[in-house]
């Protein structure tokens, strides 16, 4: 799972993506401290403890570096974090399986990358792109960083 590089100075236009999702009843918003347990439960239930740990770190940043997608019932359907395991790093990101293919992932990614851009970075690094390399290539023209696997993740404690 290599890392990938994104040019934050060439981020694609995102207004239309957000508008279309809003018309379908979805909102892409920054996570709030009072919702921390709810967000971490969502990540634990749908993904992994590793991602719960990274997401928890995002709640220690100010502003909180976790973006969530919620439906019209205020149910969480996706999340994305940045500036957690390393500075300028994007990830993790996950959309509930039943809600994939609706552009929620793209919107979460663009909102999080905008957050990194506003912190002053020129480039973002997508940490451990796993099976989603095609997603990052397609949505934000990310490129694989040669020789970056396992990279910073070599000390992770796998089960
Ligand atoms: C990767 C993930 C976040 C994408 O979320 P999503 O909401 O389904 O994606 P979107 O609907 O926003 O997709 C945007 C575009 O990327 C494409 N795409 C989505 N996932 C893709 C993938 N794994 N490989 C290639 N292209 C992909 C879509 O087809 C779509 O293209 P289109 O605009 O031509 O239709 C989601 O599949 C997921 O949660 N996967 C499991 C967790 C994971 O792997 N996270 C990434 C780890 S680094």
Task: Describe it.
There is one protein chain. This protein has 159 residues and is an alpha+beta fold. It has one domain (4-153): Aminopeptidase. The protein has helices at 15-23, 36-46, 49-58, 104-118, 133-140, and strands at 4-7, 27-30, 66-70, 76-82, 89-95, 123-126, 143-144. A seven-stranded mixed β-sheet has the order 2-3-4-5-6-1-7, with helices on both faces. Helix 2 (36-46) runs antiparallel to helix 3 (49-58). The two termini are 17 Å apart. The mean pLDDT is 97. The protein binds coenzyme A. Coenzyme A is lined by residues 91, 93-95, 100-106, 128-132, 134-135, 138-139.
TL;DR of this structure?
With 159 residues, the chain is an alpha+beta fold. The chain has five helices and seven strands, in the order βαβααβββαβαβ. A seven-stranded mixed beta sheet has the order 2-3-4-5-6-1-7, with helices on both faces.
How does the overall form come out from the CA principal axes?
globular
Strand content: 15-25%
Radius of gyration: 15 Å
Structural class: alpha+beta
Give the distance, in angstroms, between the N- and C-terminal Cα atoms.
Answer: 17 Å
Low confidence ranges: none
Distinct small molecules bound, one entry per kind: coenzyme A
Q: CATH topology, which one?
A: Aminopeptidase
Number of domains: 1
Output the CATH class name: Alpha Beta
The tally of strands reads 7
How many helix segments? Answer: 5
Residues in helices, as a percent range: 25-40%
Which strands sit side by side, in order, in the main sheet?
A: 2-3-4-5-6-1-7
Q: What's the order of the H and E elements? A: EHEHHEEEHEHE
**Main sheet properties:** 7 strands, mixed
The mean pLDDT is 97
CATH architecture: 3-Layer(aba) Sandwich
The CATH H-level homologous superfamily: Gcn5-related N-acetyltransferase (GNAT)
């Amino acid at each position: 799972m290599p890392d990938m590089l994104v040019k934050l100075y060439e981020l694609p236009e995102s207004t239309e993506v957000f508008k279309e999702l809003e018309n379908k009843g979805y909102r892409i918003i920054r996570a709030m401290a009072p919702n921390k347990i709810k967000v971490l439960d969502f990540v634990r239930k749908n993904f992994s403890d590793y991602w719960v740990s990274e997401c928890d770190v995002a709640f220690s940043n100010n502003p909180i570096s976790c973006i969530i997608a919620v439906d019209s019932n205020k149910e969480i359907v996706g999340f994305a974090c940045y500036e957690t395991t390393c500075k300028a790093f994007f990830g993790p990101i996950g959309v509930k399986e039943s809600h994939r293919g609706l552009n929620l992932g793209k919107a979460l990614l663009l909102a999080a990358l905008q957050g990194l851009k506003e912190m002053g970075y020129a480039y973002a690094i997508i940490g451990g792109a796993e099976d989603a390399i095609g997603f990052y290539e397609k949505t934000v023209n990310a490129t694989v960083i040669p020789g970056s696997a396992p990279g910073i993740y070599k000390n992770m404690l796998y089960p």
